Amino acid sequence: MGWDVVVRACELGRGLFAARPFATGELILKFTGPHYERGDPIHQTDTGANLLQTGWRSYILLDPPGVFANHSCRPNAGVVHNRLLAAIEPIAPGQEICFDYSTTMAENFWTMPCRCGSPACRGVVTDFRLLPAEVRDRYLRLGIVQGFIAGHARVGLRANLAQDGSCDTVPGRHEGG
Ligand SMILES: [Zn+2]
């Protein structure tokens, strides 16, 4: 695919780097790969770390180059519409492109130690619902939380604001599961 990214060695193995400048909100690449369900044995293997969660029970096993996008607790990109990686701030050519894996995670079992090196590093990559509230709110405002998780989070928020007459619609899921 003709994405404007390159895969290069970095501190944590390999990473995804910008091959040109990206403006805030700009599409970087589309995540693709074969579909797997939650119960699949692949989750118990090392390859399971390359699964992107797209629904409560559905995943895709990421193809290159998307599979090389590393996690950061202070990301410069995020996942929109379940499958698209978009810049959330200006990204310069040569800069590594990272997203916060927790914005796609509702697993109840899988975690990963984090060595992203950001001053904001949480030390462990875990489910979205376990993030600090201000971090969740920021990601929800940016629209970079997977639809199946964001819809759920907004339902919770709306329940807390039962007196508030205004009412957003909850976006439909793109995937079953
Ligand atoms: Zn971190």
CATH topology, by name, is: Beta-clip-like
CATH architecture: Beta Complex
CA distance, first residue to last residue: 28 Å
Bound molecules: zinc ion
Helical coverage, percent range: 10-25%
- Weakly predicted, low-confidence segments: 159-177
Give an overview of the whole structure.
By secondary structure, this protein is of the alpha+beta class. The chain has a single domain (5-160), classed as SET domain (Beta-clip-like, Beta Complex). The protein is built from two helices and twelve strands. It has helices at residues 133-142, 147-160, and strands at residues 5-10, 13-18, 27-30, 35-37, 51-53, 58-61, 70-71, 77-80, 84-87, 98-99, 112-113, 124-125. The strands form five sheets. A three-stranded antiparallel sheet has the order 3-9-8, with no helix packed on it. The chain has a three-stranded antiparallel sheet with strand order 4-6-5, with no helix packed on it. It has a two-stranded antiparallel ribbon with strand order 1-2. A hairpin with a 4-residue loop joins strand 5 and strand 6 (58-61). The protein is globular. Residues 159-177 have low confidence and may be disordered. Zinc ion binds at residues 73, 114, 116, 118, 121-122.
